[in-house]
Amino acid sequence: MKRKAVSVLLCAAMAVSMLAGCGSSDSGTDTQSGSETSDTGTDESGETESDMQYVKDKGTLVVGITNFEPMDYQDENGEWIGFDADMARAFGESLGVEVEFVEIDWDNKILELDGKTIDCVWNGMTLTEDVTSAMECTDAYLQNAQVVVVPADVADQYQDEESLSDLSFAVEAGSAGEDEVSALGLNYTPVTAQADALMEVAAGTSDAAVIDLLMAAAMIGEGTSYSDLTYTISLNSEEYGVGFRKGSDLCAELNQFFADSYADGSLQECAEKYGVQAALIQE
Question: Quick one: fold of 146-234?
């Protein structure tokens, strides 16, 4: 599939600010009292165990994703690839664990995380207030936007927010796109994934969709499966981050990994592989 390069900003100042907002946790055993951790993730003194140690002990980092090209999607052999998928595998390797990708209902991502069916949400996740209040989130590593997708032959009619009022939208439930159309008071139907929103527009069951700019650039337009669709206006600007359980010490570890990967060039190399143009932000 042809991919269009999209200019997004990768936050390089994470080496300085990588610990901001990231809580560290005590180990599973209190060395003074000798109390042991329970299956609930807390020891007898009520202190939280190390999330990193929990992942290392079981030997697997379970990553919650959706089908979201170019971040996480399957190749012809059914293997998960993409910018986020490749970086997640590299992070798992740095921890000495295997990485398992699990497709989740995006609207239930926090429940999945807290229930320990997954260990992180790493899927082009927008750092909204709801997300950052419920998860331990990394520093932003990409900038993005929510864009309006319509059939190309009517795109000239929908070039500003006022022109959208009579349209019916399909949006991923629990997504930043849903937040935007809801805030604008637009008529919409929630669907399971952003890919489903595109199918709704292609089938004519919805007039438009709101999806991530990165996905729009990779999946619609000339040379793609949705050559008759295009995107018009951006409804916002936003940042992507990775989410862990509250208090997880994996957050600071991933911030350091991002900073190291930027410094050694591997992050930029991965970005170029998936048609994402990296740019250094000067402080």
Answer: D-Maltodextrin-Binding Protein; domain 2 (3.40.190)
